[in-house]
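Quarterly update from the structural biology core.
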Amino acid sequence: MILFVGALQRRKNIARLVEAFEKLPAGWRLALAGSSGYGAAEILARIEVSPRRNDIHVLGYVTNTVLTDLFRRASIFAFPSLDEGFGMPLLDAMAHSVPILTSNVSAMPEVAGDAAVLVDPTDVTAIADGLKQLMDDSDLQTRLIQAGLARSREFSWKRAVEKTWQVYEELLAAGRS
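Predicted structure, tokenized:
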């Protein structure tokens, strides 16, 4: 199963993910977990006309328990978003040992580091090729899972608080000068 987690919004690039999914071998499923957002009607309409619509599951908002189960069952986490302020779903996938395909734009490369396959989110063929690469290369899957676990530990809440406090101290020191 390929999993996407996030609001069904135009900027999340789900229509292109669906188009890329259509190019993949039969037997794969695409699960979309998240509430509706801006452009959701267009995304749902695109899914409705997909030749693979029976393999695409729009789950809506899911509880943490269901989300944990989805991560456990996922073989690939696909997040080809066009624009993100940070990209928390990437860290969730890393922490759950799921190899990732994501965008090479916005905040995704910074969050993913070397723990994901990065693709041009405007190129459906690149998305499909990246997904196929993850499907077919078990060594790549293993490397990304290991790198993702290590990377997710770098983004702990404790570290975020420490870094935030460091910025405040620097600002206070500058204000005293």
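Residues 2-176 form a domain with the Rossmann fold fold (CATH 3.40.50.2000).
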